[in-house]
Design a protein that fits this description.
It contains 13 helices and nine strands. The chain is α/β, with parallel strands linked by helices.
Length: 294
């Protein structure tokens, strides 16, 4: 059993911290900017403790976890006033599950090293369902020794935890993931829209093509709800646009060309204007249906 702190109890962090407590059997103290969410977490999981600040949550912890919104949020809960870095001891590990920039990961890894502890950037894939079911994929940047110490704890809510490379590599891998998903979902949206317009039996069509080269998790799990116009599956359009902005910014720095990702980002902007900011990412098809074009 390890002493763990968890900062950020949003859609993802709430169940992840719960798995760390219940399935992992660890001693967990939580902090959330809205203390009511921390109290709700205690009520749901029936154990653990809360702390009023990230620094107090981190005090005495072996591993400190964080899952917040963006770069600024990560900085606030680490090096900001009452941030976790002010409470962490030498030799401890900070694991950031936020989808953020590789730049902030490298910055905070350096700040952690100066203080005598380690920082891992460890964004996740699998969405709200993956967090609830303890089946996330974690992609990690950092050094191997602290990774080996933190890996057994992350296993409480993940089906795969992989050290990709040095600081920033986890975030860069998450960018690869989001670029792939953006293009895939636009392609699937167009395929479904075309099939609808062609008057095909989509149950039969999707059952057939899912056995061939078009097979994907998105096709098997989302085509039906996309066809029916149901978009309440956790990972919101607002969040995807935040992630794609990170991807496009990094592409400008490393010289890569992302024409499809840039185009799909603008399609998501259209979905936002349609009132779909909180719809999930499969809602790209709503734009096609509204426009009547592909």
């Amino acid at each position: 059993m390890a002493k763990a702190a968890w900062i950020g109890l949003g859609v993802m962090g709430f169940p992840m911290a719960g798995h760390l407590l219940k399935k992992g059997g660890h001693d967990v103290v939580v902090h959330n900017r809205n203390p009511g969410k921390a109290q709700a977490w205690l009520a749901e999981f029936g154990a653990g403790r809360t702390a009023p600040t990230p620094a107090e949550a981190a005090a005495g912890a072996d591993v400190v976890f964080c899952c917040v919104g963006n770069d600024d949020d990560v900085r606030a809960v680490t090096i900001g006033d009452d941030g976790a870095f002010h409470g962490m001891g030498a030799g401890t590990v900070f694991v950031d599950h936020t989808t953020a920039s590789a730049e902030v990961a490298r910055e905070l890894a350096g700040a952690a090293a100066e203080r005598g502890f380690s920082f891992l950037d460890a964004p996740v894939s699998g969405g709200e369902a993956g967090a609830r079911n303890g089946a996330l994929t974690v992609m990690v940047g950092g050094e191997e020794e602290p990774f080996r110490r933190a890996e057994p704890l992350m296993a409480a809510y993940a089906r795969a935890v992989t050290l990709i490379g040095p600081s920033g590599a986890g975030q860069l891998t998450k960018m690869v993931n989001q670029i792939a998903i953006a293009g895939l979902l636009q392609g699937l949206s167009e395929a479904i829209h075309f099939g609808e317009k062609a008057g095909l039996d989509l149950d039969l069509v999707m059952a057939t093509i899912s056995k061939g080269a078009a097979q994907s998790w998105q096709l098997e799990n989302r085509w039906q709800t996309m066809h029916e116009g149901r978009f309440a599956f956790g990972f919101a359009v607002d969040w995807m646009r935040k992630d794609l902005a990170i991807c496009l910014s990094e592409a400008r720095h490393n010289g890569s060309s992302l024409p499809v990702a840039a185009l799909v980002d603008q399609f998501y902007a259209d979905v936002q204007r349609m009132g779909g900011a909180r719809w999930d990412t499969s809602s790209l098809i709503a734009r096609l249906k509204a426009n009547g074009t592909s």
